[in-house]
Task: structure prediction
Amino acid sequence: MSENSREVREVREVSVVRTASRTYKATSAETGSSIEFGQAEGLLTPVELLLAAIAGCSSIDVDVATTRRSEPEKFEVTASGDKLTEDGASRMEDIRLGFDLKFPDTEEGRKAAGMVERIVKLSHDKYCTVSRTVELGAKVTSEIAKS
Result:
């Protein structure tokens, strides 16, 4: 880190509890909010949650910036990627975000629409913790509790 940079570290934590066969509940230690996921009918899989987290992170960045000017008439973001299995090991590759936004044909709506490209780039390059973590990589370690 350079002399002029400043590092701020904040711990984020979720706990995951098994609620049924192949069904889990993730709960935020910070807010208490939770979401069910798994491989059961009607639930998002962990890979889909990863894609949702990436799309959601950038969606928030774009939404916060543009709605200062105008409420969108349409705001849809899709995330897709290629699941690759190599020698029995799986990972996602070539993750893509597609932004489909429409703003009113007003002065403020046009200003909001004109910001989208720049905000999407800033989200990717600087603000979206989720996609930056995926792209830059983060060490993942596991500990086994002695119960």
In short: The mean pLDDT is 96. The beta strands are 14-20, 23-28, 34-38, 74-86, 89-102. The CA atoms of residues 19 and 29 lie 18 Å apart.
